[in-house]
Amino acid sequence: MAKVINIQPVTRIEGHAKVSVFLDDAGNVQDTRFYVQTLRGFEKFCEGRPAEEMPRIVVHICGICPWAHHLASSKATDALFGVTPPPAAVKLRRLMQNIAYISDKILHFFFLAAPDFVIGPDADYSVRNVVGIVNAAPDIAKQVVHYRHLGAKILENFAGRAIHPTFSVPGGVSKPMTEAERQDMLPKVKELLEFSKFVMKFAKENVFPKYLDAIQKLGVIKVGYLGTVGPDGSLDFYDGKLRLMQPDGAYEDFAYDQYLDYLGEHVEDWSYQKFPYAKKWGGFALDPANPQGVYRTNTLARINVADKMKTPLAQAELEEFRKSFGRPAHQTLLYHYARLIELLQAAEEAVMLLEDPEITSRDIRVPLSPREARGVGCVEAPRGSLIHDYTMDKDGLITSVNLIVGTTHNNAAINLSVNQAAKEVIKGGAYDQGILNKVEMAIRAYDP
Amino acid sequence: MAVRVVEDWLNACSGCEISILNIGDPLLDILPLLEFRHMTALVDHKFFGQLGDKTAMEIPEADVAIVSGGVRNAEMKHELEEIRKKAGVLIALGSCAVYGGVPAQANMWKTEEVFDKVFRHCASTEPHADPKDPNVPPWTPTCMALDEVVKVDIAIPGCPPHPDWIVEALTAVLEGKGSWSLPERSVCDTCPVIREKKSVGGPVKRWLTNLEFNPEEGLDKMRCINEQGFLCMGPVTLAGCAGKTGVPRCIQARTPCRGCFGPIRKGANPMVDMMGALTSVGLDAKSLLDRRAMMNRYIGGHGMLRPLPARPAR
């Protein structure tokens, strides 16, 4: 008899989501859905706010990646006021972003994803979590808790807040870095770089090899990719142009403020989360057999679209990765591998920024005057390209807001991966909690 | 025996859960004392059975429930009511749970106005009817704090709450206490800046220039932000953002307070009090832009923010 399996809530992800798997009379997967069940309405309630308040209002969209919203919004408001922040301000923003990235990657890999890989996808749910990891691998757990928190402490010591920061402002940042602060921070960030190297080595030796089979099978879909590259084609988290790559690897680059020519958002009746798609690829269709307009963001997308990484250790890892999996790589579980390559770049770039003498310049903010304008700001959030598009009136009040956030870009792709994974693991009506967890693993790879 | 815990986020951003992790190294000592029976962020317990075949939401029995986020839709309301039935002590974690939080800014509009913008007037969105499906729970008429729906035993405000207070409140519960609260002090009581009780006067300045300060010197050498002519919500905001020992976090960043810990006392009206504080240092309080939204940024539940009546036709 036909049947529906409801997985709710989807766990070890951020927010409220539910999966339904629809089985036919033979117990095979007929259809699936990944529903996002919440909506807060930021695009409405930011209307009327003074533009300079935006970078500290929109942080509340996400408590895991507030720095990404903080900086995308700062860049959008820079554009509203028509100013370019001084070089030291940009370096300080980049530094904060990279350090926030480090904590975020450690969080996702070890707290959210690792239980599936370290404890095992079929383990009982009561032990398949971070507490299980603490018991199974106490030494590693200790380091993970310590270094994720070290990143947060570095941000707090310098910028006051790690969660929901206020440090970046339209036209620059709120305070310069003193030489004493630089000297205090540098050795700590070097510790984070050492830990990042350890994590990469640990995963390549102990985690990825065990799951090569699953990597080739679970959640694999062949769609396009979106990410930011700098002037030399290297992966850049903070600035550059957006690169939209087709499933076969052909790509087009465009400036942030041109995004409406390339990206549209479709709405379905059954999800609060919209479905962005590539406008020039012939419309949108969520048909698993023949998807239209679907692209992905976040780690795997970024390392697929980039010609190279920005830093040497990350570049060496990318070369090794591409030897095994090619470009673009379509295996969804490789998001985890790509996440660790990015972890290395974030740590290396943070060290480089702190070793740059210009970072302690006192020239950190330019003056601002309200005017009528539209401004688009974009950064790479941990979960994907993050677009903030604001309009401001002559009094400097916000009149319109459009946001496309990282995970929203991945909505269609997550739906397709859930469908693929469910069909891969559920056959003839046979499933258990471990099998259903494998369907969720296809979601967790996207770190939504 | 470990204390049984249920934790979940409702209309939230995950920042409160990250703040729990920001307990840092001591977390490893606390974890063995707790048995997480449900925690969407970290544990794979499901509401409708591990095989997804049940029809009623199952919340495990718990000694303590920790809930972040306010209530924004029918399903969150139902979940919160179920949690209340199963929990000994209910902790509201963070300013969304305690006051409605930033998402309660949406209370300045009617639901249909918000949905009309989101699904029909966003630049990149193909206009479409509002999603309508059993799997997208309808909004409640307003974004509510938890105590607008159920009885809350312990409130830990803050956006985010500081880990020191999370540990202290949890410790109180582990010791069998059913209540805990932050001391009633203002952010100014914990702020080391120089105060002379007068400002340069004139209109309240917008945040378009930085504060005046010497970065080589501590906050104790910087003039009060209100006295520099900017809005800082310190005088009407509950202290505690930097934990037991630190100085206020936004001030550390050389930026003004926006009131994320909420009012100092229950029932206080920060807007009225703040207008008084600005006037008392000689600023023209009425010149403050967007003051209703600004002064209720974190506390828009409890009817503090509502749609304004339609303006008469001109």
TrEMBL record, chain B:
UniProt xrefs under Pfam families: Oxidored_q6
Occurrences of domain NADH:ubiquinone oxidoreductase-like 20kDa subunit (ranges): 13-172
Record has Disulfide bond as a keyword: no
InterPro entries: Hydrogenase_assoc-protein (IPR051349), NADH_UbQ_OxRdtase-like_20kDa (IPR006137), NiFe_Hase_small_N_sf (IPR037024)
Keywords: Oxidoreductase, Periplasm
Record localization: Periplasm
Domain of life: Bacteria
GO cellular component, as recorded: periplasmic space
UniProt GO molecular function: iron-sulfur cluster binding; oxidoreductase activity
Name used for this protein in its record: Methyl viologen-reducing hydrogenase
Organism the protein comes from: Desulfobacca acetoxidans
